[in-house]
# Entry
Amino acid sequence: MKIRGRLIIAFLIITAFPSFLMSVCFNFILSNQSALLEESYQSKTSASNILLNPIQILYTITQQDYEDLVALAEDRPDQLLDKEYLAQASEVLQQRDSFLIIRRNGKDYFVGNQTLYESLDTLPGFGGYTRGASTMLFLDPSIPGLIKSKDFYFSNHDQGQLFLITDLTRLLPQWKRSIQELLLCLLGILLVTACLLILWVYNSIVKPLNILRIATMQIGAGNLDYPVQVNSTDEIGELCQDFEEMRIRLREMINARIRYDEDTREMISNMAHDLQTPITSIKGYAEGILDGVANTPQKQEKYVRTILTKAVDMSYLIDELSVFAIVEKNSLPYHFIPLSLKEYFSDFLEDTRLDLETLNIHLEYFNTTAEDTVVLADPEQLKRVLNNITGNVVKYMDKQEGLVTLRITDGDGEPDSQNAAEYVCIELTDNGSGIAAQDLPHVFRRFYRGDISRNSSRRGSGLGLAIVERIIHDHGGRVWAQSTLGQGTSIFFTLKKQDKQDDAAERGMEYGKNTDH
Ligand code: ATP
Ligand code: MG
# Structure
């Protein structure tokens, strides 16, 4: 979930969750309180009234008693002069924290609670209320009370007044306790909500950021193996994923760099060794001539020829190294021209076949492409590719009867490829020593030499196939190898065909007229 979504949810949680919990708690506490009120004062009230209209509750507490007294005042007013009755009524009222006052002709006839009565300021006289009966709230700072009154006449026409007074000091603490409980609940709910939110935010934002921070420190300290594992899909999760990809790429780059450095070191030591061997021979033979060891013209010729062969070997090695240096710098000068496959390979076969035959390697040639197939290539560099591959055929031939097959077919070597018509595939298969399975994936790596080659007397720097790969890649093709140890090796590469609709004038530049490039 995105951070925006989380913020919306957080907002909803902050508002909805406490509201819901609050309403549940309010309901519970208020219902409880109203049940208590009912139990204590036999007064029915709705839970919400406790908060919204507490005066209403106070009013209802003595409502029934008040109505009974009013009915009595109207029907049998003289009973309100019966002190025994009044004392009984007072007792009942006491349970509701209330008391009764009866006045006759303005004078107190009965006072249910003298102490409270004295603390009351004044009570209205007869007719003080317009309709003769009323309820009023008397809020004295020391004794707040609720007063209900009724004016009436006794049977002898004496003026009568009854007052039913409820002591609010006893009731207000209960109301206060309800409010306190509610506030405590509110506080608890807010605390719980805040904790949940903090936990959520911590897990989804702070935790991954911490992981990222530690990973950054690890990478800073050079440890590129410390993985960043965060499963979230929000922006921070994406950042962590990008970071992880960056770490992997960085590690690959550094590993490639280390491998390259190792390869270079190994190559330099191989080169030093490969150059040292012919130089030692040249030195030995030259000294032999100078010291007169080669004392016959035949011996002298043999020595000079050996010196020449060794010098040629060295020049080959130095040449390959310099080509590789150019290839590495990406500055090999290409001159792409349309080449007729048929003509180009006829010339190649003419040059190579004889050389191979002298080494007892027979060359077979198959070309199933159309006569007029033209590829776009640099003939010089293509020659280098073919020479490197056939050079390997010769170098790694271990059979008495060597056989190498050059096969040219249409297609890019992939069975179901869409681009098959655009490419030709060139395959050179030999029946030489073959490449061990563990070496095969690496033969195109620069400076890589198979175990067998490294431990044999066959010279080489491991650059031949790396150069092949680079040149073919620069031609827009690809190269790969198949091999079975002991049976032989196939090297395949593809070249892009020249479009048949292309300018005929360009055809004039076909191989044969441009060999100077
Ligand atoms: P260089 O070509 O630079 O003189 P090299 O021949 O050892 O040295 P590559 O041509 O790049 O290097 O070949 C890499 C490795 O692949 C060789 O060392 C060898 O082990 C293996 N290899 C390549 N071609 C063949 C082949 N035709 N038969 C057997 N092994 C081969
Ligand atoms: Mg080679």
Residues 85 and 252 are 104 Å apart (CA to CA).
